[in-house]
Specification:
Layout lengths: L1 H22 L16 H4 L2 E5 L1 H5 L3 H12 L8 E3 L8 E6 L7 E6 L15 E7 H6 L4 H15 L25 H10 L1
Parallel strand pairs: 1-2, 1-3, 3-5
Antiparallel strand pairs: 4-5
Helix pairs in contact: 4-6
Bound molecules: zinc ion.
The site of zinc ion (ZN) has 4 residues, from helix 6.
Length: 192
């Protein structure tokens, strides 16, 4: 028992000593991305589709602005084309009003339709989903919803979460970024 206690105490001490360097580190280049994702050949002109729910919940400006922001990054081959139908689209945008599990989510699928839970495979499709009910229930402002949309689309580029207090759209939470930040831009330039 005493031994266990000592182990716990030393683990706590170690965590306290180690945590600051971990917490404050930006994830750069390959560290900013999952290993799985779309091929670069898809990202350079991704076929997309907007479900009617995007307009009916009032998210059209944010999805359009998020696409334009990423497509406008210099020295990164990122682009979009609206194919206007679900079946042909590689990136599909939706707004749902569903429970309180998440504010937004990006679900990627492999070519056989399997959800790539661990983000390690090549993707054929991705669903970018914003949850209006969660955002209503958690008092998201318009700006918070704009940031959430940019964040979820960022996941479709395989960007993983950045850790607070890094300045990045890939941080989680009620934040007010309406554009990709310099760290996000340099990471995307590195990858694409
Ligand atoms: Zn996220």
């Amino acid at each position: 028992m005493k031994k266990i206690k000592q182990v716990v105490i030393s683990f706590v001490l170690m965590t306290i000593l180690v945590l600051p360097t971990v917490v404050y580190a930006d994830y750069e280049d390959e560290h900013a991305f999952w290993t799985g994702g779309f091929p670069a050949s898809v990202i350079k002109l991704a076929d997309y589709y907007e479900d009617p729910s995007v307009a009916s919940f009032g998210y059209s400006y944010w999805t359009a602005n998020a696409r334009a922001d990423y497509a406008g990054i210099s020295n990164a081959n990122i682009g979009f084309t609206n194919v206007g139908n679900y079946a042909d689209a590689e990136i599909r945008f939706f707004v749902v009003s569903y429970g309180d599990d998440y504010g937004g989510i990006m679900n990627p699928y492999t070519s056989n339709g399997t959800l790539d839970v661990f983000m390690t495979n090549t993707w054929a499709k991705a669903h970018v989903i914003m949850n209006d009910k969660f955002m209503d229930d958690n008092n998201f402002t318009s700006t918070n919803r704009h940031k959430t949309t940019i964040h979820e689309l960022g996941h479709a580029f395989s960007m993983r979460h950045q850790v607070s207090p890094t300045i990045s759209v890939m941080r989680q939470g009620l934040l007010n970024y309406t554009d990709p930040q310099p760290l996000d831009i340099s990471n995307l330039q590195w990858k694409y």
